[in-house]
Amino acid sequence: MRGPTGADTGAGTAGRGPAAAALLTGVLGLTLSGCAGFLVPAGEGEPEPTPSGSWAVHADKLPTPFPSVTLPERPPAAQGPAPTPTGTTPRAGCPSSGVVVDMGEVEAALGHRAVGLTLTNCGGKPYRVHGYPSVRALDEAGDPLPVPVNPGSSYMGTDRGPKEVVLKPGQTARSLLAWVSTPTGGDLIEGDALQIAPAPGLEARTFPLEGNDVRLLDELNMTAWRTDPA
After folding, report:
1. Is 41 among the domain residues?
2. What distance in Å separates the CA atoms of residue 51 and residue 29, rounded to the nearest whole number?
3. How many domains in the chain?
4. Which pLDDT value is given to residue 210?
5. Alpha carbons 193 and 143: distance in angstroms, whole number
6. Cα–Cα distance measured from residue 214 to residue 25, given in angstroms and rounded to the nearest whole number
């Protein structure tokens, strides 16, 4: 094909082929690079913004080791009120009444006989005492003897009458039991034992007299329970 000047346009184009192709490639490259903003979606290929604010924490910035945290102690579970102690533990062999009687050695003076009696609170709570012991003279078979036993004073001690006494656990009250024993006057009645209780109707204990005589010519006299000596 020829141009208006008569030159062969086909040959001219063929002669410019490599150069024209390089030029076209450069133009297309510039065109594509200039249009990259339109071809790539927004946000892609750009660095992510660094989060701002105090809440942003990076693992490589945490202290090593982590600081320890002490939790407050949990209060103990609520419990009911503690039982109120009512007294001490009763001693072994203590009667159900909570008190026990005992008798000392028989003492003699000018034909008189006397023996000290004690009343001890062996239980676990206070015990109220008011009055006299319960006493009976027994023969060798354990039967009561016809010997009267009365409250009152004697040659061996003075009776100041009953007084209400409250014995705490372990405390003791005292009484004095006395009688007259002479070689003359009246029929001789020998008592083999004394049966003694804290009060009439309570549990009694029996104590041998071991040959100490109790005579009918005199009665047995006793003082009231007191915490001070008779």
Report:
1. no
2. 37
3. 1
4. 85
5. 10
6. 154
Q: Which residues contact 129 (CB under 8 A, 6 or more apart)?
A: 99, 119, 164, 165, 166, 167, 173, 198, 225
pLDDT computed for residue 182 by the predictor = 79
Looking at per-residue confidence, does 83 or 137 come out higher? 137
7 domain residue, yes or no: no
Q: Does a structural domain hold residue 181?
A: yes
CATH number at residue 131: 2.60.40
Contact 101, 133 (CB under 8 A): yes
**Does a structural domain hold residue 140?**
yes
In three-state form (DSSP H/G/I as H, E/B as E, the rest C), the secondary structure along the chain is CECCCCCEHHHHHHHCHHHHHHHHHHHHHHHHHHCHHHHCCCCCCCCCCCCCCCCCCCHHHCCCCCCCCCCCCCCCCCCCCCCCCCCCCCCCCCCCCCEEEEEEEEEEECCEEEEEEEEEECCCCCEEECCCCEEEEECCCCCECCCCEEECCECCECCCCCCCEEECCCCEEEEEEEEECCCCCCCCCCCCEEEEECCCCCCCEEEECCCCCCCCCCCEEECCCECCCC
The pLDDT confidence band at residue 66, using thresholds 50, 70 and 90, is very low
Which domain covers residue 153, as residue numbers? 99-222
Of residues 182 and 180, the one with the higher pLDDT is: 180
pLDDT value of position 72:
57
- Number of Cβ within 10 Å of residue 123's Cβ equals 22
